[in-house]
Amino acid sequence: MRGNRHSGSRIKSDRGFIAVVAMCVALLVSLTARAAPADEVLRAAPVRCNDEAASGANGGDLAGFACLSAGEQANVIRERIDDGTLGAMPDSRVIALIDAMKPEAIVAYTRVTIGAGSSYEYWMRRRERVNGKWPTQADHMEVYCQDSPQRVYVKWLPDGAHAGQEIIYDETRDPTRFLGHFGGAWHFLSGRFQVDGTFARTQSRHSVRDLGLQFVVHTLEHEEGSFEAEGLSAKPSRVEVETVNGKRLLALTWDASDGPPAHFAPRVTLTFDLHRPQLHSVIAADAAGVPLEEIDFEQIVPHTWTDEAFDPHNPSYDFR
User: Cα separations (Å) of 67 from 47, 59, 104?
Assistant: First the structure.
């Protein structure tokens, strides 16, 4: 009998210990959930179509937004930028909204930010790691571009690397070569070069034909297909809101298993202005976060070009 009493006491003690452990675990889970950043909580429970609870918790229309087609979602984001609604939203609300977008909608909105037309002028600052070297100074470039047929004129501006350099490409004249000259003392010496030749690759891994903004859209479409082929979601790995030089930006990051040819780079980040429909930057890095390429778009302006814009004999150009 005495042994049974001790056994019963031990059972009660074990039950009490288990209850205390359970309470501690529940408390730890509760504190962890409270400590988690709001953005992580939102991303941990993605909004699904017709999810009424999520709709009520996130502003009344988030579930409805998730049910829209890709084109409709892109148009809604454009409208909310135009009327200032998106820029006035708190970070957590912006992240939740973008997190509900379909991958195709992000491609569609990127297309919106570079304009519906096929002719435009833009200014950009860019750096690219070539042969393992990261440039100390960014190129500052002014680009005239027409997508169909593809014609490109580029001038390197005085406050950037390779100042004074120019190139001009017109597929209607010669789809395999472009005219170009270096800056500085060699500006007087122009020549025709293969679009994928040595001259084209001295400062970039890209072809001259990649200079058009449609290259960004085509790259996104390619990335989407690659992720789907791998059985993975093409949605961004991270959605963030950040402030750079006083601008509030939306940053979308995709992490891939590797780089070319399946993916543009192991890590790609696109940033968009929250106060105007403008693609702000494209950043590519390796898996460790080491930068491979950075492009900052200062301004993108629709423009209807005449033939003179792509004529090497244009008196404002320095081709010889």
Answer: 10, 15, 13
- Residues 68, 71, 76, CA angle at the centre, nearest 5°? 70
For the chain, the helix, strand and coil percentages under 3-state DSSP, each to the nearest 5: 40, 25, 35
Tokens in use for 271? Answer: 């940033």
Whether pTM exceeds 0.90: no
For 265-304, the pLDDT digits (tens) are 999 999 999 999 989 999 999 999 999 999 999 989 888 9
Average pLDDT, the chain: 82
Q: Using alpha carbons, list the distances in angstroms from residue 55 to 45, 47, 52, 67.
A: 12, 8, 5, 11
Please check whether residue 94 is in contact with residue 250, taking contact to mean a CB–CB distance below 8 angstroms.
Answer: yes
- Please list, in sequence order, all residues whose beta carbon lies within 8 angstroms of the beta carbon of residue 32, skipping any fewer than 6 positions away: none
Domain boundaries, the chain: 7-34, 40-101, 119-310
Q: Please give the single-letter amino acid code of residue 256.
A: A
CATH 2.50.20.10 describes domain 119-310 = yes
- H or E element, residue 320: none
How far apart (Å, rounded) are the C-alpha atoms in residues 152 and 309?
9
Each residue's pLDDT tens digit, 15-70? 443 343 343 334 333 333 333 343 443 444 555 665 443 443 333 478 889 999 99
**Could you tell me the maximum CA-CA distance found in the chain, to the nearest angstrom?**
112
| Helix boundaries (H) for the chain | 2-35, 38-44, 52-57, 62-67, 70-82, 85-88, 91-99, 103-113, 198-201, 214-229
Give 72-115 pLDDT, tens digit per residue: 999 999 999 999 999 999 999 999 999 999 999 999 999 888 76
How big is the chain by its Cα radius of gyration, in Å?
Answer: 27
Residue 59's φ and ψ, nearest 5 degrees, are 120, 5
Cα–Cα dist 240/220, whole Å: 18
Q: Both tokens of residue 92?
A: 């957590």
